[in-house]
């Protein structure tokens, strides 16, 4: 099965941050990663699993940033 792909304009520091943030959050929701940026680590997940989710969320965010922002 092919993975679903979502694309948004990369944030470059000049475009509408609020709109970009809404779209990025939607991508994180669809990827099952929103909890990583909005919640504390749940008690029922081990540290390694949480760190893996954290890395995935970080990379998803970084891929939505322009090189000039990184």
Automatic annotation (TrEMBL):
Q: Which domain of life is it from?
A: Eukaryota
Q: What is this protein called?
A: Uncharacterized protein
């Amino acid at each position: 099965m092919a993975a679903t792909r979502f694309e948004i304009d990369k944030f470059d520091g000049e475009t509408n941050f609020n709109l970009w943030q809404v779209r990025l959050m939607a991508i994180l929701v669809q990827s099952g990663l929103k909890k990583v940026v909005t919640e504390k680590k749940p008690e029922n997940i081990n540290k390694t699993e949480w760190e893996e989710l954290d890395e995935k969320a970080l990379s998803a965010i970084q891929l939505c940033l322009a090189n000039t922002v990184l």
